[in-house]
C-alpha cells in the first residue's frame, strides 16, 4: 500500500500539483488553520484585506507542492531564495484583481463548463474514464475538505482563465512578423573561425620567483586543502530486507518505510544516530576522515550523489534527516567531524602556482593577439589571418541559429550566437573563449530560409508568435490593472511566515 502511495505521488498527484501551480497557485481550501479571534491582513486591495489565515493556507500549500516536487532537495532556505513567499502573495493579489475584472465584464463559469473541466482532467480518470472515487481521494489529498470546495475553486479558475484567454487571444500577428520570426529560426550561416590556442604560447612565457609569489599572494583562496568529513550513516535497504527475510519486494519496501519512520522517531529521543540505531537494532556505517574524492570510494556514501552532498554540507550537531533515495533506500547521515579547508603554504603548491601563473600569462597574451588581429581584420580573410599567424582555421556547414546543421565540437553555442549577431562577411567584435582556444568569428555566408519550409511552418510560427505576443499583452494589461488599484502590503505581518 505504501509503495502504491509513493508511486502515485510521483505520477498523477505530481501532475495535479503542477497543474495547480500553473493555475496561478490558486486559493485552495477554506478551513480553520491559524484562525483565531484576531485577524491580521497580509495585504489590502482597495481596502479589502487578504487575511493572514488565507495567506497561511496558500503559502503552506505552495510549500507542500515544492516538498512533493523536490523531495529530499527541498528546504525552507531554497524556497526563500526563490522568493516563494512574495510570489504567493502577489499571485493572490493578481488573482483577486482578475476575479474582480472578470465579474465586472460579466464573465461566468457555467455548470456545464465546470463539469467538463472536472471530468476531462486526466488526473481524475482511470483508463480514460472519470472515476468519482479517485476524484474524491485526490481532492482530499490536495487539501480540500469536500469536492464542492474544489469545484468552487475550479469555477473561479475557469473565470480567470477565460479572462486571460480573451486578452491573450486578442493579440494579432502580421505576415511580416511571421516571416521575420521564420528567418530568425530558419536562416542559415556558414561560419569561419580562426583559433588562437593559448597553450601554444606557454613555452614562450617565463615566470620568475617574484611573479609566482605575486600570483600566489593574489590567488591564495584557490590553494586550499580539501574539506574533510567523518560521518556515521544508517542504511535501510528494501532489497536487503527482501533478501534477508525472504519477503516480496512490495512488502520489503513497506517494511523499509516503517523502519525509517521508527528511526526518525528514535532520533527525536536520542542524542546521536548511533544511539537511535542501537535502540532499533540497526547497524551503523562509520567512515574515516575523507575528502570528496575519497568519499567516492566509500561503499555507502559513494553510492549516491545525494548522500555525498549531505555528508559535505551538513555540520556536527545539525538535525539528522533521513534521505529517501531514488532506488528506494532510506539513509540517515550524521557528521561526526568536519575539517574545514585551509590555505596551503606556498612551498606545498609551488609547482601548481607556477603552472597556473604561466597559463594565465599565456591567456593574456592570446587575448592581446586577438584584439590586435580584430583591430586590423576588416579587410582580411580568415585564410589570410590563419596563414600569417600559423593559426588553425575552421569552417562550418550551413547552420541555423539553434546550432542545427553542424555538430562540430568547435562550433559552440557562443560562436553561433556571435555569428548571428554579425553581418555577412564581417568579423564578430570580440573573440570567443572555447576549449580549442580564443575564436575569431567570421560570417562567411548567409542564407535565407527557403519558401517551401516557410509554407510548412508558417501556421505553427503564427500560433507561437501569437502566444508570445499575447503573453506580453497580458502582462502589460495586468500591470495596468494593478496601477488602477490601491495595493498595500503589510510586510511586518508577511515577515511572520
The CATH class of the largest domain is Mainly Alpha
Shape: extended
**Major beta sheet, specifics?**
5 strands, antiparallel
- Structural category is alpha+beta
Distance between the ends: 35 Å
Number of domains: 3
CATH architectural label of the largest domain? Orthogonal Bundle
Question: Helicity level, as a percent range?
Answer: 40-55%
CATH superfamily of the largest domain: Porin chaperone SurA, peptide-binding domain
Number of strands: 14
Which residue ranges are poorly predicted, with pLDDT under 50 across at least 5 consecutive positions? 1-36
**CATH fold assignment of the largest domain:** Triger factor/SurA peptide-binding fold
- Report strand %: 5-15%
Mind telling me the C-alpha Rg? 31 Å
Mean pLDDT: 88
Secondary-structure map:
Elements: H1 2-9, H2 12-22, E1 41-45, E2 48-51, H3 52-70, H4 76-81, H5 84-104, H6 111-119, E3 125-126, E4 129-130, H7 132-141, H8 147-169, H9 175-186, E5 188-196, H10 209-218, E6 228-236, H11 238-245, H12 249-267, H13 273-280, E7 285-286, H14 292-296, H15 305-313, E8 322-324, E9 330-339, H16 346-375, H17 382-389, E10 392-395, E11 399-400, H18 413-419, E12 432-434, E13 437-447, H19 451-483, E14 487-489, H20 491-494
Antiparallel strand pairs: 1-2, 1-14, 3-4, 5-10, 5-11, 5-13, 6-7, 6-9, 8-9, 12-13
Give a description of the structure:
The structure is a single chain. This protein has 497 residues and is α+β, with helices and mostly antiparallel strands. The chain folds into three domains: 2-170 and 481-494, Porin chaperone SurA, peptide-binding domain (Triger factor/SurA peptide-binding fold, Orthogonal Bundle), CATH 1.10.4030; 188-221 and 346-447, no CATH class; 228-339, Roll (Chitinase A, domain 3). It is built from 20 helices and 14 strands. It has helices spanning 2-9, 12-22, 52-70, 76-81, 84-104, 111-119, 132-141, 147-169, 175-186, 209-218, 238-245, 249-267, 273-280, 292-296, 305-313, 346-375, 382-389, 413-419, 451-483, 491-494; strands spanning 41-45, 48-51, 125-126, 129-130, 188-196, 228-236, 285-286, 322-324, 330-339, 392-395, 399-400, 432-434, 437-447, 487-489. The strands form four sheets. Strands 5, 10, 11, 12 and 13 form a five-stranded antiparallel β-sheet that branches. A hairpin with a 2-residue loop joins strand 12 (432-434) and strand 13. 21% of the residues are buried. Residues 1-36 have low confidence and may be disordered.
Amino acid at each position: 500500500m505504501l509503495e502504491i502511495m509513493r508511486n502515485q505521488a510521483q505520477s498523477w498527484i505530481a501532475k495535479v500539483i503542477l497543474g495547480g501551480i500553473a493555475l496561478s497557485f490558486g486559493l485552495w481550501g477554506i478551513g480553520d488553520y491559524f484562525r483565531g479571534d484576531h485577524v491580521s491582513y497580509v495585504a489590502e486591495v482597495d481596502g479589502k484585506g487578504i487575511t493572514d489565515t488565507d495567506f497561511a493556507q496558500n503559502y503552506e500549500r505552495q510549500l507542500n507542492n515544492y516538498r512533493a516536487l523536490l523531495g529530499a532537495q527541498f528546504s525552507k532556505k531554497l524556497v526563500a531564495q526563490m522568493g516563494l513567499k512574495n510570489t504567493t502573495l502577489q499571485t493572490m493579489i493578481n488573482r483577486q484583481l482578475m476575479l474582480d475584472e472578470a465579474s465586472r465584464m460579466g464573465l461566468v463559469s457555467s455548470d456545464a463548463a465546470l463539469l467538463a473541466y472536472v471530468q476531462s482532467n486526466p488526473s481524475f480518470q482511470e483508463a480514460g474514464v472519470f472515476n468519482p472515487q479517485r476524484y474524491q481521494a485526490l481532492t482530499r489529498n490536495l487539501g480540500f475538505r469536500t469536492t464542492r470546495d474544489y469545484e468552487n475553486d475550479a469555477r473561479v479558475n475557469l473565470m480567470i482563465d477565460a479572462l486571460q484567454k480573451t486578452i491573450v487571444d486578442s493579440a494579432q500577428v502580421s505576415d511580416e512578423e511571421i516571416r521575420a520570426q521564420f528567418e530568425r529560426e530558419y536562416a542559415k550561416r556558414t561560419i569561419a573561425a580562426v583559433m588562437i590556442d593559448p597553450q601554444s604560447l606557454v613555452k614562450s612565457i617565463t615566470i620568475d620567483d617574484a611573479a609566482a609569489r605575486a600570483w600566489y599572494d593574489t590567488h591564495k583562496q584557490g590553494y586550499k586543502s580539501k574539506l574533510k568529513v567523518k560521518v556515521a550513516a544508517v542504511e535501510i535497504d528494501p532489497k536487503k530486507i527482501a533478501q534477508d527475510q525472504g519477503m516480496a519486494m512490495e512488502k520489503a519496501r513497506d517494511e523499509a518505510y516503517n523502519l525509517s519512520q521508527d528511526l526518525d522517531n528514535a532520533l527525536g529521543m536520542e542524542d546521536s544516530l548511533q544511539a537511535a540505531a542501537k535502540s532499533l537494532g540497526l547497524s551503523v556505517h562509520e567512515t574515516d576522515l575523507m575528502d570528496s574524492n575519497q568519499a567516492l570510494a566509500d561503499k555507502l556514501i559513494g553510492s549516491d550523489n545525494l548522500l555525498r552532498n549531505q555528508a559535505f554540507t551538513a555540520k556536527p550537531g545539525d538535525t539528522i534527516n533521513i534521505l529517501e533515495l531514488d532506488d528506494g533506500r532510506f539513509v540517515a547521515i550524521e557528521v561526526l567531524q568536519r575539517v574545514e579547508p585551509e590555505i596551503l603554504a606556498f612551498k606545498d603548491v609551488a609547482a601548481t602556482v607556477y603552472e597556473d601563473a604561466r597559463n594565465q600569462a599565456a591567456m593574456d597574451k592570446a587575448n592581446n593577439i586577438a584584439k590586435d588581429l580584430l583591430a586590423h581584420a576588416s579587410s582580411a580573410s580568415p585564410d589570410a589571418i590563419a596563414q600569417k599567424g600559423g593559426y588553425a582555421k575552421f569552417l562550418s556547414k550551413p547552420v541555423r541559429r539553434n546550432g542545427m546543421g553542424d555538430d562540430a565540437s568547435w562550433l559552440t553555442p557562443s560562436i553561433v550566437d556571435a555569428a548571428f549577431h554579425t553581418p555577412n562577411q564581417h568579423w564578430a567584435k570580440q573573440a570567443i573563449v572555447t576549449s580549442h582556444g580564443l575564436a575569431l568569428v567570421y560570417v562567411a555566408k548567409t542564407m535565407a530560409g527557403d519558401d517551401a519550409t516557410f509554407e510548412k511552418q508558417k501556421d505553427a510560427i503564427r500560433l507561437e508568435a501569437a502566444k508570445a505576443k499575447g503573453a506580453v499583452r497580458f502582462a502589460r494589461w495586468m500591470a495596468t490593472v494593478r496601477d488602477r488599484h490601491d495595493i498595500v502590503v503589510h510586510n511586518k505581518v508577511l515577515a511572520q511566515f
